[in-house]
Amino acid sequence: MMINKKHRASSWWSLLVVVSLCIVLSTYICEVQAAAVMSVDLGSEWMKVGVVSPGVPMEIALNRESKRKTPATLAFRDEVRTFGEDALSVGIRDPSSAYGYLIDLLGKTIDNPIVDLYRKRFPYYEIIGDPERNTVIFKKNDKEQFLVEELVAQILMKAKEFAQESTHQPVTEAVLTVPGYFGQAEREALLAAAQLANIKVLQLINDYTAVALNYGVFHPSGINETAQYYIFYNMGASSTSAAVISYQLVKDKHTKESHPVVEVLGVGYDRTLGGLEIQLRLRDYLADEFNAMRKTSTDVKTSPRALAKLFKEAGRVKNVLSANMDHYAQIENVLEDQDFKLQISREKLEELCADLWPRIIKPLEQALAHSGLSLNIISQVIIFGGSTRVPKVQETIKQFIKEDLGKSLNADEAAAIGAVYKAADLATGFKVKKFIVKDAAVLPIHVAFERETGNGAEIKHVKRVLFGLMNSYPQKKVITFNKHTSDFKFHVCYGDLTHLSSEERLFVGATNISLVELEKIKDLLEKMSNESVEAKGIKAYFALDDSGIFRCTGVEYVYDKQKIEEDEGTLAKLGNTISKLFSKDSKEEEKKAEDFKEEVGEDEKIKEEKSEEKVNMENEDKQNKTTAEKNLDEKENNKKNETVKIVTIKEPVQHKVTFQFTPPLTGKSYELSLEKLNAINKAETMRSRLESSFNALESHIIDIQQKLEEKEYASCVTSEEKQKILSECSAISDWLYDDSDKTTHDMYETKLNDLKTLTNVFMARHWEHEERPEAVKALENMIDGAQQFLENAKNLTKDANPERDVFTQIEIDTLSRIIDDTVTWKNAEVEAQNKLQRHEKVRLTVKDITDHMGSLDREVKYMVNKIKIWKPKPKPTTKSDKKTNKRNEEMETDETGSGFGNETQSDDDLSSQQSPDEDIKVNSTEQSTTTPRTEL
């Protein structure tokens, strides 16, 4: 019994150790794997970056100018790449070198109407088609050409830089927002751009879904078991969308826990209605007014630079008119040194965009129609997006809903914050409140295939809906093909698009998504024809994942087959039962199980022996049976021990999937793009290092020249040294400003190091003279403290106080000697140093002072530590005391709880145990970090 207890105890200890190690290891793994993640709300005009890192809440990353949003524009001029505001400045001087409003060009072929609209809006770009993929290429010259994916990838790289600078950690994972109307081609193109930027995309999330998630997370009080309905209205730079969203607490069937669910029920959009269109209307108006003034004979619209200036001013005036009734548009040197100034009223702007205002409510109507809900059950219409600040936009929406608008969200940052919450949910190392998100398919998807009807009839064209309009996703679907006996193929296409306008259907582009070709079907069916199988058909599996990406995940031939299994014997059944009932974790339980098996085995053996005797007797009585009857009995007995089971078997079907939408950037094209971007990044890194090293050398030269003009620095250098330093600065300065293309960052850094070696001599002297007074003062304070300590310590020796003999006389003498030596050294060195000129070699350095402070500090700390551990010696006990103690011990043993063992001490005993350090004041020496002496 004792052995079993010990074994059980050891087992529990082993389990406890393992669990503890697992907890520690899991904690360590979480800390190691926890890394910062980001979100990028990449709009047409602006880019916002959200970040979250361990221990730091969600926030917006600032750019180099400490702003929370950055223009989604980059420029190339004179082999220099710039981003953001700098790129916009380049775009004024050379419009064709700055690239913006790129998001809508992703995944578009050169013949898409969106590309024609882009050319019309920005006529100064030369746009050509990719010879392989027929996608958009910006051609600057014969050497510089950029795919849209390459330009977007470089913007994402800059977003990654902002995130890393904000979190001070490497960032590799992100959630990216996309417009909800993006199809498969656009989403694949954005994923390719992110891959070029070396960003792992955790998910693509629709912008309105990200905002709805943001609202639900930060306004959880209104979410309960009853569904609440909201509309999120977004007008950005280039598009407008509206989404009907529901919030509800839903109980999980398995865990029985309730979690909030945000679900998209209906979506409406207009991909060409936004702030950009308003700005372009105003730009064209300003251009017409300038031409009407006839200040030049040249049409201002034919000048790219003038058009870019007008576009920038139109954007500024549009923003001002959102808060004011009128404002002046004013531009210097629009064209041919002619200035331009014009007063514009908000009324005039609204007149210019008169045909746009009715389009504002159409996305709202579409979203309500697709959701099947009426406006009267919508709790609130919440607006976001920069262009919703236009007064006419808000006024039009309010007239439609007849209620006030919800403005509780940050119009610019709501999507970025919602997306970064999703990133924290998906990334490793973060724990966030579970919030289930169900998005909706804006473009329905169906499968189309041909089927033979037999008897020479015509081939039947069949369509099957996979994901209908507003079907929720992520979701998986299966289609079964029952009547195909040979190789066939099926198309995956966008479904019924009649709910879209004719113009929007053209914007969608190619409606074919993929072609799936199934091969060797006949061979597979013939292989199974000889077996007793029941065919269930060919099943194709499809998925629409969290990012809205559609995939055919596999094709299988499924059939049921009969499988005959023999019944297990009695011993086998008992063995299986025992193995299920008893665990192998305990050796004791294993032993019991083995004993039980052995006992059962003996009983079975006895039964078998008796059975054999009985069979022998029966055989003697039935010798007249025929051989046929015996065989029949054997077959019947075998059938009783056999069980027929139906097993479902899935055989993979060989198939080939071909994308039929705009081909994504893959293969050799991707490798070439990656090589191009790596070369651009490398050149920029080298140029940045060259500029930094140049600026560092230039700044050091100017700094040294200025310091040598100041009295306090000039007094620390001899005339020969000063002449040599100034001469060297002049020579390097001449070389520095010599226009040479052969200079490298290594050359600048070498010159800087040589110059620092020369100038550090007098800079070190100046530093010594500036820091020495404080160091000497600190040493004097330490000496004063040590002397006070010494005076108190002299009272804790055997001669001065026999009952409190903390220190020996040797220790007292040692400390006294060190104090005296330090004082003598300090006085002598200070006097000697004061006789020297500031430009002469320093005699008393700060290091010398700190060394002596360290020696004194160690000795004092040694004595302080000795006080802390000192205890008074026990008093010798007499024989009567021993008898009294013995009697008290006996009484305590006999009468437990009597309280005899809690005698009070006399005043003499208390005073004798008083700590000696109560009488000693320890000054600043205890605050030093110098290691104390360890010998006691």
TrEMBL record:
<feature type="region of interest" description="Disordered">
    <location>
        <begin position="871"/>
        <end position="936"/>
    </location>
</feature>
<keyword id="KW-0732">Signal</keyword>
<dbReference type="GO" id="GO:0030968">
    <property type="term" value="P:endoplasmic reticulum unfolded protein response"/>
</dbReference>
<keyword id="KW-0547">Nucleotide-binding</keyword>
<dbReference type="InterPro" id="IPR013126">
    <property type="entry name" value="Hsp_70_fam"/>
</dbReference>
<feature type="region of interest" description="Disordered">
    <location>
        <begin position="592"/>
        <end position="639"/>
    </location>
</feature>
<feature type="compositionally biased region" description="Polar residues">
    <location>
        <begin position="922"/>
        <end position="936"/>
    </location>
</feature>
<feature type="signal peptide">
    <location>
        <begin position="1"/>
        <end position="34"/>
    </location>
</feature>
<dbReference type="GO" id="GO:0140662">
    <property type="term" value="F:ATP-dependent protein folding chaperone"/>
</dbReference>
<dbReference type="Pfam" id="PF00012">
    <property type="entry name" value="HSP70"/>
</dbReference>
<dbReference type="GO" id="GO:0005788">
    <property type="term" value="C:endoplasmic reticulum lumen"/>
</dbReference>
<dbReference type="InterPro" id="IPR018181">
    <property type="entry name" value="Heat_shock_70_CS"/>
</dbReference>
<dbReference type="InterPro" id="IPR029048">
    <property type="entry name" value="HSP70_C_sf"/>
</dbReference>
<keyword id="KW-0143">Chaperone</keyword>
<keyword id="KW-0256">Endoplasmic reticulum</keyword>
<dbReference type="GO" id="GO:0005524">
    <property type="term" value="F:ATP binding"/>
</dbReference>
<feature type="compositionally biased region" description="Basic and acidic residues">
    <location>
        <begin position="878"/>
        <end position="890"/>
    </location>
</feature>
<comment type="similarity">
    <text>Belongs to the heat shock protein 70 family.</text>
</comment>
<keyword id="KW-0067">ATP-binding</keyword>
<protein>
    <recommendedName>
        <fullName>Hypoxia up-regulated protein 1</fullName>
    </recommendedName>
</protein>
<dbReference type="InterPro" id="IPR029047">
    <property type="entry name" value="HSP70_peptide-bd_sf"/>
</dbReference>
<dbReference type="GO" id="GO:0034663">
    <property type="term" value="C:endoplasmic reticulum chaperone complex"/>
</dbReference>
<dbReference type="InterPro" id="IPR043129">
    <property type="entry name" value="ATPase_NBD"/>
</dbReference>
